[in-house]
Structure formats: C-alpha cells, structure tokens
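Replying to the earlier thread about multi-chain prediction with a worked example.

Input:
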Amino acid sequence: MARVRLENCPACRQPLPDFGDWPAWCPACGWGIAGEDASAVHMSRFKRWWRRRTDAAEQSELQRLLANPALLSRPHPRRFAIYAAAAAVHLTTLAIVATGAWIMTTGVVGVIKIGAGIVIFGLVFITVPAYRLRPSKAAGKADAPTTLTVGATVAAAVGVAAPERVRTRSDGQPLRPTSGRMLTVDLDRWQGLDAPGRIALLAHERAHHNGHDPRRSMLVILASETLDGWVALLRQDPRTAARRQHRTSAFRGRSAGPPMGRGLVGLSELLIPLVIAPVYVVVFTLRWVLRESGDVAGLRAELYADALATEISGLYPTAYVDGLIGGTLGGVPDLERERRRRMAVAAGTRSNAMHPTYAARLDMLTALAHRPTAPRTPVAISAADLDAMTRELVALSTPNE
Ligand SMILES: [Zn+2]
Ligand SMILES: [Zn+2]
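Result:
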C-alpha cells in the first residue's frame, strides 16, 4: 500500500522533505514531535513530588556545570555525605553482630541466649546482602579473551583498572550493580552501534568505575542493599498491624470481648509501632541521603563519563547521543535520527533511572565541544577485534545449559 506523501506541514504550511517510509515531521515548527511525558501519568502523588524535586536538583547541577565545565572532571563534594550514610549502615550491622556476640558471652539463661541469638542473627541474615559473597559465575579470560583485552585498552584510556570478568545484558534486563572488576555490556545496544559507538559504549561503562560516582562504589551498593533488607523487614509489620487492627475493631463492633484481653491487645498494638517507628525513621533518613545526594553526584559522574566516551571514541556529541537513544542506527536516515533526538529531548526521556536525560547529556557535550581543547585522539581498536568481541558476547548471552 502506497502512503500518501505529505507535501506541506499541516501546522505551518512549510514544504516537507521526503521521509520515505519513516514518520513525517516538520523540522521548521516541530509538528509531529510529541513532547508529553506519558510515564508521569501513572505515578503516585509522592512519586510525582519526588520527581519534581530531583528534576530541579538535576537542572541546577547541570546549569552549574554548563557555566563552569572545569567542574565536570572533579568528583562532586556531596559524595562524602553518601559515604558517611553508607558507613553508618555498616556500623549498625557491626553493632548488632557485636551485641549478639556479647549476649552469648554473658551468664544469662540459655533460653534467653537462644532467643536473642535467633532475633539478632536473623536480623543480620535478612538485612545483609550475603549473596554477594558467593563467587561470580561470569565469564573470565578463558571465555572472553578479546573482550577483556579490548576492555583493558579502553579502561587504560579512561584511567580505570582493567576488568576481570564480563557479563552481558539484553532486552533491558535489570542487572545488579557490581564493582569495576566486572565489565557489563548491553548486547542490544552493542549490536546496534558502529565501531566508534561501541568504543564509546565501553568507555562510558568503564568510566562508571573511576570513583566519581558514589552510587557505583561497593561501600554504597552494599549499604543500599542492606537498607532495602530493612525496608522489606519493616514494611511487613505496619500492614499486618493495620489488618489486625481492622479485625479487632470489627470484632468489637459485634460483641464485647473480655476487658483484660482487649487491653493487652491494645497495648501490644501500640508497642510494635513505637519500637518500629524510630528504626523506620533512621532507615528512611539514610535512604534519603543516599538517593538525594546520589542524584546530583551521579549526574556529574555520568556526564563526565560521556565526556570521556566521546573523547576516546572521537564521536561528535549528536552522533554519540543518537547512539544512546536510537538503538539500531544502521540504515536510519539523518532526518529520522534527528526526529528521535528531538522527541527524546522534548519528552525529557533517559536510558534508565541512573542516567541523566538525553537532553542534559546533549547540552553538556555540546558545551564541551565548543571549548578550545587539544585535538581528539581516539583510542585505536581494530575492526577484527570488535568483531571477535561481538562473537564472544553473543556466545555469552546464549546460555547453553
Ligand atoms: Zn511545520
Ligand atoms: Zn552511565
């Protein structure tokens, strides 16, 4: 079926170029570029409020960096607040273990020892991400030699330690954060990119581990997972308490229970929230510090990673950001790339919650490109090596069990 070609823009009447089979849009007035953010519609009020706050914080950090690009290569000072909060989490875990150990050495009755032991070591077991201690099953030098060699070259260019293991991600599957020893490659993105795009992808990934982003340090990752454990533990109780409350009030409505029992139930229902509330406040505050400071410090670190990625790959800002937005770019005409870029900028989209918006990344890179700097010296990686890497990565992503 032949499509009817639009000769003129329905909005501003300007003549339109031939888009072929790609969607029509107007480069002059922006007709055909929807800019509304659909994700905000399904958000709770609290989430919308939080989003507005973080957006404002990100905007002011971005403006600061645009005004003074020299700040970009300096880690954000707010990272110390994050490290302090993370240290507080780990010290709490240690204090709980120490308390448990101390109770075991005292002369209290055996039953109390057993009870305290179950509660204390149960708490630690639930809250501490112990699975992190298990040895990694990700591919090493034997299964991905070229990938790790190329990874080491790029890491050296970025100024980061070489990776020791490789894992792949596809279909946007979420992966747990890791230390810099692990190289994580998004296979879908990798396959959609040309050689400079792939080098940029690796460079950005390696730059995550240059110590600028507190959210990527193991100290903070472990603290954050411990807090998740606490939240999971605490969330259970207010809900069960509410359900219990509901049941007892319904029971009271129909027939009066024994006065003694009712009083005891009332007291225990009051005690649980009284004990939990302070713990909840502490957990909530620590999480708040980790998230809030993580947002601005992380923004700066991500934008710096972009700057390194374009420097090392020799890509221009728009080509780099097109690669981030577009997925597959082979055979996509310039006009369609521009439409996607303008849509992403208008909608304020981002690749994921850890990353700044495409608009912010483009703004920062464009500002950097206008500064007088030494000519770019892209890192040299042969096409043969990149092809060998693709084969290794594909083999890793297809489980042969
Ligand atoms: Zn128009
Ligand atoms: Zn990143």
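The first helix runs from residue 45 to 67.

Feel free to reuse this layout for your own posts.
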